[in-house]
Protein 1
Amino acid sequence: MRVVILGSGGAFPTTWRMLPSTVLLRKGEMFIFDCGEGTQLQLSKSHLGWARLRAIFITHLHGDHVIGLAGLLMTMSMGSRERPLRIYGPPGIADYVRLTQKYLKFGVAYPLEVEEIEGGVVVDEEEYFIDAIPVKHRVFTLAYRLVERPRPGRFNLEMAQKMSIPPGPLYKHLQSGKEIVLDDGRVVKPDEVLGEPRPGRKVVYMVDTRPFPAAVEFARRADLLIHDGMFDDEMEEEGKMRGHSTTRQAARIAKEAEVDRLILVHISPRYLSIKEMLRQAREVFPNTRIARDLDVYEVPLKQCTSGR
Ligand SMILES: [Zn+2]
Ligand SMILES: [Zn+2]
């Protein structure tokens, strides 16, 4: 999996930070989380295009997270997109899309569905799922995560040969977790030839929120936690009032949740230098980065449970 931060800022865009939008790529599928103003431009700068785009997930209906939506929808239509697109977001998102289309008088040439959600599993696939929980902001806001289900363990070829299992489709059956019956009537269970199941990966996108206890469980052992890092220590009170986190608070969530890496986004335009706020976060959780626009983060496959 690969994560591309299209916009690392919050509130209003600056020449150094665009508004929230993050791309997640997984096996030829692309998902976008939030669609701030300028998202389509950032997409174009990142050379990602939108052919693989399957769904857009909106956290909440604050302008800095949704104003880019109309432009992106229009451009994709002009660009002869045919693949269906789904938008998930909080209650109100369907009206927002419908009324923008109505007043700007634009239709789209591809099937577009908008689904209003309040949490729970929204995409459910064999290899992974995407779910959401409400967070603590000033308006109803969701956090999302993509969670891969564990993969079957590595195939032990030597063992298979020792057990005289003929190579070919039977290997495939075992590899996919199904038991087989050999010609001589012997039954072979997958765990006889497979190593330990290999854990899946987890990427969490949680912006525009104060820290809250359920965030820790939601982010538990994530490979990558992308979190609101709007303010530094000095602005903690302001953050509380405005429903945002300081970098240190985000780092505490990362630490408690035992994530691998913390990527801070939604950085306030007031900060020209991020040195101090980064230091504050790293004091708590060393493996922290403050994202810059168009940063790319790889999320490699995990090989075994102990190697997370
Ligand atoms: Zn925001
Ligand atoms: Zn907001």
Note: The longest helix spans residues 93-103.
Protein 2
Amino acid sequence: MLRQVMLSVALAAVLGTGLVAAEDGAGSVAETIAARRGLMTQLAALQALIDSRLGAADYSAELYDLGQAAAQSLEAFALLLPAQTNLLGGAPAAAGAETTAAAAIWDDLPAFQQLLRDTAAVARQASEAGDIAGFRAEWDKVAAACTTCHESYVFFDPFAAIN
Ligand code: HEC
């Protein structure tokens, strides 16, 4: 049940919006960015669910599905980074499109995509651990990767609120 819910959310986010368009480079910039931001929002929701399952005394079989869904979200994000969505790096503005994805991502896009895939692989290892201690050991690395990546690749304008 949980598995179906989480996977269908991931799939809807990707198929419903920009994935196909992103691959041929001709899609809507706003939709592609909305799709990738949706995947990150979903990752935060998955993280909250995982944290609550890890706080329980007994191993929850749902942890398998949650870890797999997190891995899939990270992998799908890697497909939603066409150059025309590099708005902070000079790509033309598009109606309704807003992003905090830093221009540095496109300095070496393959390396950035690898970072996402490496993090996905760790999430998958957590998922397949089969017990709370093993899951937590791997998931801690995923949580650290969220923070490290955001520090380097997510741009927040400290003056945005007062402009
Ligand atoms: C390899 C880099 C990378 C990793 C790993 C990563 N993120 Fe992100 N995250 C980003 C980028 C880039 C954005 C900005 C997306 C945009 O605005 O287009 C972002 C944005 C977000 C946002 C804001 C979404 C919005 O509405 O704009 C949240 C929440 C988030 N990430 C959560 C997470 C969580 C939770 C994890 C770990 C489980 C994670 N991220 C792992 C790169 C990463």
Note: The two ends are 45 Å apart (CA to CA).
